[in-house]
Each structure stands twice: as C-alpha cells, then as structure tokens.
Specification:
The complex is a heterotrimer. By secondary structure, chain A is of the alpha+beta class. In chain A, 28% of the residues lie in helices and 27% in strands. Chain A has two domains: 4-47 and 151-218 and 313-390, FAD/NAD(P)-binding domain (3-Layer(bba) Sandwich), CATH 3.50.50; 97-143 and 225-305, D-Amino Acid Oxidase, Chain A, domain 2, CATH 3.30.9.10. Chain A has helices at residues 16-27, 44-47, 62-72, 75-79, 97-111, 122-128, 150-163, 207-213, 278-291, 341-354, 385-390, and strands at 4-12, 32-35, 51-52, 90-94, 118-121, 138-142, 146-147, 167-169, 174-180, 183-188, 193-201, 221-223, 225-232, 240-243, 249-252, 257-264, 266-268, 273-275, 299-304, 308-310, 317-320, 327-331. Chain B has three domains: 6-117 and 260-352, FAD/NAD(P)-binding domain (3-Layer(bba) Sandwich), CATH 3.50.50.60; 120-257, FAD/NAD(P)-binding domain (3-Layer(bba) Sandwich); 361-434, Orthogonal Bundle (Arc Repressor Mutant, subunit A). The chains are: A alpha+beta, B alpha/beta, C mainly beta.
Chain lengths: 395, 459, 101
C-alpha cells in the first residue's frame, strides 16, 4: 500500500472543512489528497448536535458564519445532497431575566452584521410556542437558522470532492510532516510518502499536534459532547432549541426523534474513544423536560459522543501558519464548527490561491496563542516522525 | 479479596449456576436480571397463579429446570434483584433501572450471563401482526399459555423449529406446517454428529416423530416468499426445493435462524470480540475459563457462545470457579478441569447442530428491495442498498449512520445480521469484513421521566 | 381493527382483571402480560411511526422493542414485559401530533 504522491495540496483531517476544501481545490484543477485517520466526518463534524446556527455566536465568527449560511442553501448543487438541512429557525430560551438581557444584547450586536434576531416575551411567547415549559421567561428567534444531519454532510462533501478529482484516503493517519526547500513531505501510517506545495491542517482536536510539528503551540483541549436521541414522536417541535447558558439543546427531526444534548461526555483521547457521560446524561434529561415538558414520558433510545477540539477562547484557529510558508490551519472549532465547515472550506481554498480571504480572519490568528503551553496530544508514541524522516528512515 | 463485590448480570442457567457456586464458596453475589423471576428465557417461569406442571413447561428439561429453580430460590446468600435493567457500564459501575428507578451498582468482579435471542432474516410481510420469532412463540406458550394464533406456520433453520412446533401441537394449537430452509441433504449429513452427541441429538428426532404422528407436514429446503395478507397475516407463501411456489392459509407465523448472543453489555465493558465461524456471528472473546479480555469481567452462557441451556449452566459454574481462582482460591483446578471436559465433550454435537441448522446467508443477501429491513426505523432493503451505493460505507456502523438501519429502539439487534450480509454482498466481501454494530448506552430504551425525577430529587 | 390474535390454550381459570384498550373495556386475567391482554382481544399493539401499518410485537422477550404501548396518561409500557393491572387505560393507535397541546 506504499506509494508516492506528488500533490499541490495535502489535507490532514476529514471533517467538513477538510472535505469542502478538497472539493474546492480539486474543482479548480489542483492535485489534492486528504488523509483521515478514521473515516470522513467521524469526530466533531459527524457526531455533533446538527445545529446550523448563527444565533448566539461570538461576533468574531459572524462574518464567516453569515457566509456559511448562504452555502447551506446551495448544498444540493454543491454536493448533490441537501444534508437534510432545514431552515427551521433557532430559538434560544431564557430561564431568568438575566438570561433574557443577554439575549437582548446579542440581538442588538447581531444587527450590525445584518443578522435578524427577534425577541419574544410575554403572551406572544406562549401563543407562538405553546409547547414550552413554564420556567421559560423569554426567547430570541433567528428565523434563518436551522438544522441538518451531521452524519451525512462531511461524507457528502467527500463524495463530491472525489468526483471533482480529489483523492480521499480513509483509515490512513499522517504520522509526520515537515517542510524543506522542495515543499512539504508527509508520511502516513501506511508508509505512503507524500510531497505537497501546500499543507492544510484541519485535524480538529488533533490540529494542535500537527501545528506542533511546525513549532506552533496551541492549547487544545479534547472535549466530548453528550448526545442523546429519543424514540420517534409526533412532529411538534418545528424549531431548533438552545438555551442561554447552553446547558441543554434540542431539536426534532421530521421522522419524529428528538435529538438533545447537554454537558460533557467522557473520552480517551489516546484511544480515540468517547461516550456520553452518565451524570450529564441524567442532568440533560431533567433540563429537557424542564423546557419541553411533553418529553417527560418518552424514552431515550441511544446516546453518543465524539471528540472535539476546544481552544481557551472557544473560537477556532483559521489562517496561515506563523512559522511555515504554505501551511494553513483551521481547527479548534470548540464544539460549534458544524455550521461553519462549508465556509471554512471556501476560505481555505481562497488562502491557497490568493493568500488572503474576503472573510475577516484576524480574530482566528494562531499567533494569539504564541508562548502557550504545549498542547494536549502533541506528544506522540515517543518516535519522532519528523526526525526519522529527516534521517531518511524507512519503515 | 473475599469482600470483593461480585455482580452477575442475567438470571438464566449460566447466571443462576454461577451464583450458586459462588454462594457455596461463602460469597454473596448480587444477581441483576430484568425479569420478575429467575430462569432466563429457557427456564422462564410462568407467572404466579399459573398451575401447569414442570414437565408441561420444560419437557425433557423439566428435571434440570426444577433443580436449578429450587436451589436458586433456597439460597439466601444470593442477592437476587429482579426487575433490574442494566443499561450502561461505566468503568466499575453499572447503571441500572430497578423497578423503574435509577440506581448504580458498583462491582469488583462482573459476570455477564446475558443470554441470547432469535436471529432472523427479514422477509416480505415480516412486520405484520401475526409474525413472531420462534423464541417468541415459545414464550407465549410457556409464560402465558397462549398460542400466537389459531393456525400457525413455523419456518426457518433452528433447533427451536421442531421443538416449538411440537410444543404447540402438544398444547392443542393447530400447526399448519413446519418448513425448514435447510436442504434435506445437509440435514442428513449432520445426523451422525447429532445422534453421537447423546440425548440432545435424539430429542430432536422425538420432536420430529411427534409432528409426524400428528400428520403435520415437515418440509426441507424451502425458501420463504412472503407473509400474505394486508393488515395482518392471512397466509404464508414459500417455494419448495424444486422452486415451485406454495401458499398455506394461516393467521400466524413463527420463524428464526438459530440464536444470537446479547453481548451489548460486554461491548460497553470494553471486551474484545471475534467472529465465530461455527456460530456464524460475532462473539465475545473468552479464555478457557470464561475470562474476557477485560480484567475482572467474566462471561458465561449463550451471551458468550451459543450452546444451549446445558452448556450455559456448565459455563456458569466454570466462570464462577475462575472468579474464585482469581480471588486466590487455589482449590478450583480439578473442578475447572471437569467443567472443561464436560464442555469439550459436547463440541461435536455443537458442530453438528450448527451444520444441521445453518444460517442461510444467501437469503439475507437476496432480501427484495421493497422489503422492510430495519423494522424500528421502517427502512427497506432497497433504501439501505441505495445508501451503500451512494456513500460506500466500509462497515455496518457507517452504513447505519448513512441509512438509519440499526439506529432505532432495538439498536440493530433484529436487523443487524441481515444488514451486515447486504453490506458484505454490496462490497463483495465476507460478512465478517462488514464488522459488527457497536453498542451504545442505553442498551434498551430508558424513560426520560425516571432520570428527570431523580435529578430533581438530588437538586 | 381485526379480531383477537393470541389464543388461550390453558390456565383460563385465573381471576379477571379489567382494563380498557382504546377506550373499550377488555377483560384480562391475572398474570397476563399487556401483550396477552391486548392480543387476546385485539389484533394490534401499536402503529408504526413511519406509516407502514400496525404492529403486534415480535420477540416477546424484551429485545426487539416493537411492542411499546401507551397509557392514557402518556406513560409508555413494553407490552411483553409488563403485567396487566386493573384500571390500566391503554392506547394502541398512532399518537397525535401538535393538537395534543
């Protein structure tokens, strides 16, 4: 299974952003290959809640998120599937006056970005959303938001990328990469040697490990969402639900299942396994019945999790490397990258072709972590793959 | 060491015997089981107030069932907690619902004796009212003194096929036909091994003779076509060995293709798995004494290796003695060796049974496109194949993510084997290359209310 | 709705237990599971959520999860592993949607 690949661009990580970047680069005629240690969309991109939301984001993310939202409408022409995206709106609930004030603050700020958010309280809240529990005192509604099926979006982009000529290698982790005068050299776990002019690091929770190969330190913490799904119920929740404070979130798909989550699960980063956590599972059930009392008698039929990479400020790293020309990062989406993924793919392609992006990326610069402590997961198995490659070691 | 908390999940023959051995050594094992009474499926007890005698309920196995029930009931060193669903394992803690209330049970040593269920292959009409598993048909009779219908067709490839059909006939139900998917030639080839296996093999012949005495047709080499009828079963269509189509009028159908292990908890405990070619299914890896690959987690019974009640009981004793050995008891060697001898002595019979009732994989691969494959999510085989064509999943877990097959209330217990065959056929590989569906907690549905209330109480 | 599905072969002398199924009185027996109680009087236990018709259970041993029925108060019970109790008011039809509020 060894072979040598000579590429314009190599991509490490098969999440939505990586697969979308592969699509755009291949469409423009570049020789591109993507390497994914498991299967495309198997961690943060594939196991998340499925919220497609601009509502409630850090304002620094809104320009990128606005751009992403326009792409979600075009998924069928882009990847031949709508990803089960539905613009159901996103309703963020307040369970106290303080929380309502925070929703009002967001609505005011969002207006500067052209994002319409409605504030709903009092009689109108009960009239429009009769299925809410009594503890909810108010809400803000972003009608243009929605939800999609995370299990099929990244694979959909991967399929389209393949059709455009990109190579997608699953179950093939990149073990090391370096840059010399000829460009980037990579070695995969299957012993494949790869050379590339450009290297794109979209490795999610493992992104810091890749950055560390090039002397860049980002303190990424691997976290796991605690996701649950109920048996199918009559369709009565027509909007994606979040809460101020974020301790529970819920949506219902037209087939009837209510998907919800809250709190953190458990993971073993080294073994790449994760699960919804027992205590948080129970708490999320209580919070669910609090905001949606009619879920009280239903059954949870399955729980799951995955591994997401969190940065200290919970916004991602996106942009060129500070140390290595031709290296571009996009990782650390901190549990809310699903909506952004399609736009990140476009931005990465722009960075490859022009060195810049029409979307402001300054807040996401990797330099903000300069001097930070060594990242979790930067330590490998003891073998230094870069040194080994420099010495021409063969496996 | 003797204060180790020992928990057994499952109160069937394996779990009951293990508990008795441990109690006999002076320990106080906790036995968790979902059912209201011990016995498991095979020695399942009828509810209080029922009056049928043991031989009516358990036939040839009446003596063994009576002895095990009596010993288990009499042993007050065993802490039997019935009505307890173990729905998750996290580290050394079991999360349970006990009579509907959430509890946690900590353990130092865990024996999983979680039993088995029918293995099926969907066929057109199989979700209609009136179609049940062979094991289900037996439970209706044993536990509820009911037949699943007025006139019943039994079909498949399973030791349960002649057994349940003859039990129905003996109880006064009308058995329309017994239709075996195994070709007669294969059945005859397995016969020497069956008959050399002692009493068990001969019992099968007795069931066949009882059916013949009642002039109940028994056919070999059939292929199921469909359960007929619109809202419920009105008949069964099949083709015979020569390909000719037949229809039988009936209002109920029981079918199955052997048993499959209920290993979800072993999966959550992190145990290793292997594909067992003889049983033609994924089973939990156990060493010669029933130790799993996870220290402190032990295995016994049909949940580990399909072998039937008699073997399960021996495997339960063996696992209990392995636990005692691991606790420092050096005197278990001879008894362990005896268990191994008794289990080894049945090896030829087990192989013969596997040959006499082989899983008809080609039938699964040929499920028609318009037939429902996943009954929880109502996904057809055609929809499943289309999702495979579109996104090329490598294993059943990816195929599930793309198609929702195996994603419903039962978590793929029912459709899993057939889905794996369809995926393997599409990929042109052996079924084991399609992998196995990973288990996710809760292993069975749990009501939100129970936990929401508990969270409130704690707040 | 079609008629009875299960047929009692023995043990018919047990005390009676009165329940209702879809609002109509049904006479069950002590020791009946809900599945037995319902299917000795009716032809179905539930309706598939996905429009493919009625269901009446499948495995009878708590594994297939295809026999869940609802009580009028909203609780859900697995019919093959729950005993009938006097006064239970069971619903077997499709659950209603938004108009349930």
């Amino acid at each position: 299974m060894t072979g040598h690949l000579d590429l314009d661009a190599a991509i490490i990580g098969g999440g939505t952003a990586g697969c979308a970047a592969a699509l755009h680069l291949a469409t423009r005629g570049l020789r591109v290959a993507l390497f994914e240690r498991r299967t495309v969309g198997s961690q943060a991109s594939g196991v998340n809640f499925g919220g497609v939301r601009e509502h409630g984001r850090d304002f620094a993310e809104l320009p990128l998120s606005r751009r992403a939202r326009r792409i979600w409408d075009r998924l069928p022409e882009l990847i031949g599937s709508d990803g089960e995206f539905m613009a159901t709106g996103h309703l963020k609930l307040a369970r106290s006056d303080e929380q309502m004030a925070s929703l009002e603050d967001f609505a005011r700020g969002a207006a500067d970005y052209g994002l319409a958010v409605e504030l709903i309280t009092g009689n109108r809240l009960r009239a429009d959303f009769p299925w809410l529990g009594p503890r909810v005192v108010g809400a803000s509604l972003c009608r243009s938001d929605g939800q999609a099926n995370p299990r099929i979006v990244a694979p959909g982009f991967a399929r389209a990328a393949r059709q455009a000529g990109a190579q997608i290698f699953e179950h093939e982790a990149v073990e090391g990469a370096l840059r010399d005068e000829g460009g980037f050299r990579l070695e995969t776990e299957r012993g494949r040697r790869v050379s590339a002019r450009t290297l794109i690091n979209v490795a999610g929770a493992w992104g810091a490990k890749v950055a560390a190969w090039f002397g860049e330190s980002v303190p990424i913490e691997p976290q796991s969402p605690s996701m649950q799904v109920t048996e199918p119920l009559p369709y009565r929740l027509p909007v994606n639900i979040g809460v101020a404070g974020g301790d529970v979130y819920a949506r219902q798909i037209p087939r009837g299942n209510v998907i919800f989550g809250g709190g953190r699960g458990w993971n073993d980063f080294g073994a790449i396994t994760s699960r919804a956590g027992g205590g948080n599972v129970t708490q999320a059930m209580g919070r669910l019945t609090d905001i949606l009392p009619w879920t009280r008698h239903v059954h949870v039929i399955r729980t799951w999790s995955g591994i997401e990479g969190y940065t200290p400020d919970e916004i991602p790293v996106i942009g060129p490397s500070d140390t290595t020309p031709g290296l571009i990062h996009a990782f650390g989406f901190s549990g809310h990258g699903f909506q952004l993924g399609p736009a990140v793919g476009e931005v990465l392609a722009e960075l490859v072709f022009s060195g810049g992006s029409e979307t402001p990326l300054a807040p996401f610069a990797i330099g903000r972590f300069t001097g930070a402590a060594a990242p979790v997961g930067a330590q490998g198995d003891g073998r230094d793959p870069i040194a080994a490659m420099q010495q021409g070691e063969t496996r | 060491m003797r204060s180790d908390r020992i928990v057994i999940v499952g109160a069937g023959p394996a779990g009951m015997r293990a508990a008795l051995v441990l109690a006999g050594a002076g320990l106080n094992p906790v036995v968790l089981d979902e059912a209201p009474a011990s016995g498991g499926q095979i020695y399942r007890r009828q509810p209080r107030g029922f009056t049928r005698a043991y031989d009516k309920l358990y036939g040839f196995e009446a003596g063994r069932a009576r002895a095990l029930h009596a010993a288990f009931d009499a042993d007050n060193r065993i802490d039997h907690r019935s009505g307890t669903l173990v729905w998750n394992i996290e580290g050394r803690r079991l999360q349970t619902l006990h009579d509907g209330r959430p509890e946690t049970v900590e353990f130092d040593r865990l024996l999983l004796a979680t039993g088995a269920m029918d293995r099926v292959i969907p066929f057109p009409g199989w979700t209609r009212p009136g179609v049940y598993t062979l094991g289900g048909a037996q439970v209706a009779l044993k536990h509820q003194a009911c037949a699943i219908g007025r006139r019943v067709v039994f079909f498949g490839a399973s030791p349960l096929l002649p057994l349940v059909a003859s039990q129905y006939a003996a109880a006064g139900a009308e058995v329309a036909a017994v239709l075996d998917t195994t070709p007669l030639r294969a059945k005859l080839a397995a016969m020497p091994g069956l008959l050399a296996g002692g009493k068990t093999g001969w019992k099968g012949l007795v069931y066949l003779a009882r059916l013949a005495a009642r002039r109940i047709p028994y056919r070999h080499g059939i292929t199921p076509v469909a359960a007929l009828g619109s809202e419920s079963v009105e008949g069964f269509a099949y083709t015979d060995a020569s390909g000719r189509r037949h229809e039988i009028e009936c209002d109920a159908i029981a079918f199955g293709y052997g048993l499959k292990s209920e290993w979800q908890l072993a999966d959550l405990a992190g145990c290793g798995f292997e594909f067992d070619a003889g049983n033609y299914q994924w089973q939990v890896v156990a060493d010669e004494a029933g130790r799993s690959t996870v220290p402190g987690v032990y295995l016994a019974g049909d949940g580990t290796r399909i072998g039937g009640a008699e073997l399960a009981e021996i495997a339960g004793e063996r696992a209990a003695r392995a636990i005692l050995t691991d606790l420092g008891d050096t005197g278990q060697g001879a008894a362990l060796a005896a268990c191994a001898r008794r289990i080894g002595g049945q090896a030829r019979l087990r192989r013969a049974i596997e040959r006499a009732f082989p899983f008809p994989a080609p039938l699964a691969r040929a499920i028609p496109d318009d037939c429902i494959l996943c009954r929880c999510e109502a996904v057809t085989a055609g929809e499943f194949r289309a999702s495979i064509d579109r996104l090329a999943p490598h294993d059943v877990n990816r195929a599930k993510a793309f198609s929702r097959v195996g994603m419903g209330r039962c978590q793929g217990r029912i459709c899993g084997p057939a889905a794996a065959e369809i995926l393997a056929a599409a990929r042109g590989v052996e079924v084991k290359e399609a992998g196995r569906l990973r288990s996710q907690p809760p292993v069975k549905p749990v009501p939100v209310a129970a936990f929401a209330d508990a969270a409130e109480d704690a707040a | 709705m079609s008629g009875a599905r299960f047929r009692r072969l023995a043990e018919t002398g047990r005390p009676r237990v009165a329940i209702t199924v879809d609002g109509a009185p049904v006479e069950a027996m002590q020791g009946d599971t809900l599945m037995t109680a319902i299917l000795t009087a009716r032809g179905r236990l539930r309706v598939s959520e996905f429009g493919d018709g009625p269901r009446a259970g499948f495995c009878l041993m708590g594994a297939c999860q295809d026999c869940w029925v609802r009580l009028e108060d909203g609780r859900r019970l697995r019919a093959c592993t729950t005993f009938a109790e006097a006064g239970m008011a069971i619903l077997t039809g499709a659950e209603e949607g938004a108009d349930a509020f």
